[in-house]
DNA sequence: CTTCAATCATTGACTTTCTCAACTATTTGG
DNA sequence: CCAAATAGTTGAGAAAGTCAATGATTGAAG
C-alpha cells in the first residue's frame, strides 16, 4: 500500500516553484550525500573537487562565486580536502593574492569513483523523468540559477 | 558592463541537475527572504503560515512531512508564529495527541500581504522564463520533489 | 478490558551551514 | 607613490539540520 501522498499537494504552496525548488533540492541532496558518505564527501565538497579535477584551475573566489558560497566556507572546504591530500593550493602567477585549486592524482582518483555514485544518485532522484525531461529541467534550471546579474 | 559570467559554466558540474537545483534554490530563497524581511518572515515561516491560512488545518506532523522538516523545527516555527498571534494550535478531536495549525485573522491578513511580495520575488527570480516554461518547470519539479517513496 | 507497540508533539543537545565583520597581503588606477 | 579595491583567512554568532529521549495518547492483539 502506498503513502497517503499528501492532501497538502492541493495547496497553492505545492504549486510554488520556489517551494518545489527547495524541496527537490532537499531530497536530491539527501540521496547524493548518502551515496557520497563512504568517501567522506558531501555534494558540497565534491563540487569543489569536481571543479578542481577538471583542469579549470579555479581560484577560491571563482569557486565561491560559482558555488554561491561565502569565501570563508570555501576556505573550510579546501582546508579539508587539502588536509586529505585531494587538492592543492597553487600560487597564481598573475595575482599573488589568489590561489588556484587543483586536484592531486589521489583527488582525481577519488573524484572518478565519487562521480559514478553521484550519477547513480541522480538516476534515483530523477527516476520519474524521461531523458528529455531531464534535459529540459537542466536548461530551465540553468536560466534560474545563472539568470540574474 | 556585464559580469565575466563564469567560464566555469563550461564544467560538467554546471550541467548537473542536482547542482543547479541547489544553486537555483539558493538564489530564489535569497530574493524571497529579502522581500519577506519587512514582515519578519522567511520562506520557511511563510510556508507554515500559508498552509495554516488556507483551510487545510494541517497537523504538525503533516507540516513536517510536507515541508521536509524535522518535527522539532516545525515546533520552533509554530512557536514563533503563535507567539506573534499569527497562528493557533487547535486540538484535533480525532486524535488528542495532534495539534491542528490554523491562521488567526491577523495571520491571514499578513499572509495576504506576504503573498504579493512572494509573487513579486518569483517574478524576478523566474524572469528569464516564459509562462509556459514556468509551468513546465513546476511540473518537472513536482515529480522530483514528490516522486520517490 | 488490558497491555504493548507505535505515533504526535516537545525538549534538549549537538553538528553543520550561513552570514558578517575584521585583518593581511597584494593589486589596480589615478 | 597613494588610495581604494580585491583575494584569502580568521573568528564569532545566528540559523538550520540531526538525533535521541520523554509524556501523552492511540490502536492493535490478546
From TrEMBL, chains A, B:
Stated name of the protein: MarR family transcriptional regulator
Limits of the HTH marR-type domain: 14-146
Gene3D superfamilies assigned: Winged helix-like DNA-binding domain superfamily/Winged helix DNA-binding domain
InterPro entries: HTH_MarR-typ, MarR/SlyA-like, WH-like_DNA-bd_sf, WH_DNA-bd_sf
Gene Ontology biological-process annotations: response to stress
GO molecular function, one term: DNA-binding transcription factor activity
Organism encoding this protein: Actinoplanes xinjiangensis
Amino acid at each position: 500500500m502506498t503513502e497517503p501522498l499528501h492532501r497538502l499537494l492541493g495547496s497553492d504552496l505545492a504549486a510554488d516553484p520556489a517551494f518545489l525548488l527547495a524541496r527537490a533540492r532537499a531530497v536530491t541532496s539527501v540521496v547524493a550525500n548518502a551515496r557520497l558518505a563512504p568517501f567522506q564527501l558531501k555534494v558540497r565538497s565534491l563540487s569543489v573537487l569536481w571543479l578542481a579535477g577538471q583542469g579549470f584551475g579555479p581560484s577560491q573566489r571563482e569557486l565561491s562565486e560559482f558555488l554561491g558560497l561565502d569565501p570563508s566556507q570555501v576556505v573550510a572546504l579546501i582546508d579539508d580536502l587539502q588536509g586529505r591530500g585531494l587538492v592543492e593550493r597553487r600560487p597564481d602567477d598573475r595575482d599573488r593574492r589568489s590561489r588556484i585549486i587543483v586536484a592531486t592524482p589521489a583527488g582525481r582518483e577519488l573524484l572518478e569513483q565519487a562521480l559514478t555514485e553521484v550519477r547513480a544518485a541522480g538516476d534515483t532522484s530523477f527516476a520519474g523523468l524521461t531523458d528529455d525531461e531531464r534535459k529540459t529541467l537542466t536548461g530551465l534550471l540553468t536560466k534560474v540559477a545563472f539568470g540574474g546579474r
